């Protein structure tokens, strides 16, 4: 046991030294990488500086050549082309010259700090300014109608004399930039070499004083591990046997689960087939129900047409009025069935749309309804009813709207009527029918008020609801029922 702990302690000591050496090597590698990146970055920056300096020389030569061609040509088209070339090149030439001296972030130029280059630029600037002034004067002097400008003219003479001096000084500046770049790169490479040599020396020392003792310790540990492995092999055989038993049990359980899954899949498939059959039967019944509503609607329209034809032969005004009311009621019920047989209408009817169409249909049977006499406003957004409630509700609303049209505004009086419906999540529905006409002149239930008696009876018996009549500045009929009852 003591020998085991001694070996562990020694191995721990060697490991600490090994980790420390590796950390130092890693630090040196990082320093070498950083140095390399600095060399690359400096080379890129110096290359950009030298390239722009060389381009400055080329632009100077181009400007001088273009200025001579510009001065000598008499072709109007060439004059404008040369003028544009000189202006564009002069702008670039001026920008680069300023960037070489004071720095320009857009061009990637740092501010010049070389004293010798500063001296060259100080000597160069008067020649640069002479060339620039000469070019600007030449652009102003040369027009489309002027002839060739002689070489002895002040602008050309100024350009020709100053340009060679500028080029010579720019050449010396470029040489100075190149020399300075080579010196910086040499220093960085020397630093990189020192770091590399130090790292190699450290690796040699690590191999002599760390790896050799560690290898001996590892060999001793390996021998002891061989003995431990022999003991472990026995334990592994026992574990293998237990594993095989467990795998056999798992396979048997998986087989049972697979069989149960197959049975469940068969049941699901059978249930899906049953659902398909039920879906087909439902669609067939829905189609049949729509067809029934369609035929009922057609039959009701035929009845309405017959009533209209019969009413033409009736002379008694009261009898004629009864025929008209019956025709309007039949057409209102027909409109409900028309909406029920349309796709998506078998379940529910949007009552706002139905009320608007019903009012429009009833208005066609009575003169003066609409903008000239009675203005109806319908507000029932989001209220829908099934067929069991929509049909009696439609009959009720037909009677109430007919009553407003016939009795609320006698003698050609103008006015307004409102139909408002709302519903709550629990199925409660409230419908308000209002008008600002002459008001109701008798109570509901009086002898002879068949229409209002029918309304009351339908609300109570068919809708299982309540109806209230309120009299004031407006006549209000309030109907309440629950469509989920």
What does this entry look like structurally?
With 485 residues, this protein is of the alpha+beta class. Helices cover 73% and strands 8% of the residues. It has 2 domains: 2-227; 348-482, Heat Shock Protein 90 (2-Layer Sandwich), CATH 3.30.565.10. The protein has helices at residues 2-72, 76-102, 115-141, 154-311, 317-341, 351-364, 387-408, 450-461; strands at residues 349-350, 374-379, 384-385, 415-423, 428-435, 466-470, 475-482. The strands form 2 sheets. It has a 5-stranded mixed β-sheet with strand order 2-4-5-7-6, with helices on one face. Helix 1 packs antiparallel against helix 2 (76-102), helix 2 runs antiparallel to helix 3 and helix 5 runs antiparallel to helix 7. The chain is flat and about 125 Å long. The two termini are 88 Å apart. 21% of the residues are buried.
Return the structural class. Answer: alpha+beta
Low-confidence stretches: 444-448
The overall pLDDT, averaged over residues, is: 79
Side-by-side strand order of the widest sheet: 2-4-5-7-6
End-to-end CA span: 88 Å
Largest sheet: 5 strands, mixed
Number of domains: 2
The helix content, as a percent range, equals over 70%
The succession of helices and strands, N to C, reads: HHHHHEHEEHEEHEE
Q: What is the number of helices?
A: 8
**Beta-strand percentage range:** 5-15%
Q: Report the strand count.
A: 7
């Amino acid at each position: 046991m003591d020998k085991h702990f001694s070996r562990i302690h020694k191995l721990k000591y060697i490991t600490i030294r090994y980790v420390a050496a590796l950390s130092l090597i890693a630090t040196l590698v990082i320093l070498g990488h950083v140095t390399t990146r600095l060399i690359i970055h400096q080379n890129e920056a110096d290359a950009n500086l030298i390239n722009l300096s060389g381009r400055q020389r080329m632009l100077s030569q181009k400007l001088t050549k273009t200025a001579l061609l510009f001065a000598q040509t008499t072709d109007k088209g060439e004059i404008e082309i040369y003028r544009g070339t000189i202006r564009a090149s002069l702008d670039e030439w001026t920008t680069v010259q300023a960037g070489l001296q004071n720095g320009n972030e857009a061009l990637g130029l740092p501010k010049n700090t070389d004293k010798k280059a500063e001296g060259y630029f100080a000597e160069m600037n008067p020649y640069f300014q002479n060339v620039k002034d000469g070019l600007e004067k030449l652009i102003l002097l040369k027009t489309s109608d002027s002839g060739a400008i002689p070489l002895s003219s002040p602008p050309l003479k100024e350009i020709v004399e100053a340009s060679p001096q500028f080029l010579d000084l720019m050449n010396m500046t470029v040489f100075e930039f190149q020399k300075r770049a080579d010196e910086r790169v040499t220093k960085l490479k020397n630093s990189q070499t020192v770091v590399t040599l130090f790292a190699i020396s450290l690796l040699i020392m690590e191999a002599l004083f760390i790896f050799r003792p560690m290898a001996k310790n590892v060999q001793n540990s390996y021998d002891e591990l061989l003995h431990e492995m022999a003991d472990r092999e026995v334990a592994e055989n026992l574990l293998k046997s237990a594993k095989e038993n467990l795998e056999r049990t798992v396979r048997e359980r998986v087989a049972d689960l697979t069989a149960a899954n197959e049975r469940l899949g068969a049941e699901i498939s059978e249930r899906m087939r049953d659902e398909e059959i039920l879906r087909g039967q439902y669609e067939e019944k829905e189609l049949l129900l729509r067809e029934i509503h369609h035929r009922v609607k057609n039959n009701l329209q035929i009845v309405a047409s017959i009533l209209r034809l019969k009413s033409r032969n009736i002379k008694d005004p009261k009898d004629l009025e009864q025929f008209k009311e019956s025709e309007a009621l039949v057409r209102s019920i027909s409109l409900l069935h028309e909406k029920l047989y349309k796709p998506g209408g078998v379940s529910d009817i949007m009552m706002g749309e139905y009320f608007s169409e019903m009012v429009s249909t009833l208005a066609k049977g009575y003169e003066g309804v609409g903008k000239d006499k009675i203005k109806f406003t319908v507000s029932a957004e989001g209220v829908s009813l099934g067929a069991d409630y929509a049909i009696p509700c439609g009959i009720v609303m037909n009677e109430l709207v007919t009553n407003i049209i016939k009795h609320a505004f006698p003698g050609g009086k103008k006015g307004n009527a409102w139909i408002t419906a709302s519903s709550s999540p629990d199925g409660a529905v409230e419908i308000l029918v209002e008008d600002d006409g002459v008001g109701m002149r008798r109570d509901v239930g009086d002898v002879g008020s068949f229409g209002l008696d029918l309304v009351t009876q339908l609300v109570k018996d068919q809708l299982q609801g309540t109806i209230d009549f309120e009299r004031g500045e407006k006549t209000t009929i309030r109907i309440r029922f629950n469509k989920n009852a």
